[in-house]
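tool=predict chain=A
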Amino acid sequence: MTVAQQMPEAEASITTDDIEDKDQYLTFIMADEEYGVDILRVHEIKGWDKVTPIPNTPAYVCGVINLRGTIVPIIDLRQRFGLKTISYGATTVVIMLHVIEEDGERTMGVVVDAVSEVYNVSPEEMKAAPDFGDTVNMEFIHGLASVDDKMVMLLDIDNLLNSKEMTAINQAVYEEAEEVSEKA
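tool=predict ok
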């Protein structure tokens, strides 16, 4: 008996129309909460590895890595969000993301506790982030989605990784890349 024969008719009849109007989000875990990023922005997922630290950068900047000839900044999202710092473990991964900036596109990595799932989310399932006034900065939240009886925070990675404070990091990474090029 084939897999298709074993599946109930309802499950076997899923068509591309069922997911046509949905966006896919790669979700990951941090501090027992689930966050998501647009899967089309994910370049790759790597296990945690040593980085080269960059002096005079915020604590949430782990450093940079050389990813096939490209210098990529690595950001610890736990620290970026002000969550409790934990030791990196076997499930800790770096998600390499394509980030759109004013002057083009670049790859940046974010360190997360673990990768979770890929979810299909329709525009109707996504809700706007709540307004907490000036007390909480919500510009990094694209929206909230209820998936499988849990709330997933969908991140706006362009705002998250392009904020004004990231300008200094970009400059430090650029200088590091120039030093590497000069040594080569």
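Helices lie at 3-6, 9-12, 16-20, 77-80, 157-160, 166-183. The domain at 22-183 is CATH 2.40.50.180 (OB fold (Dihydrolipoamide Acetyltransferase, E2P)).
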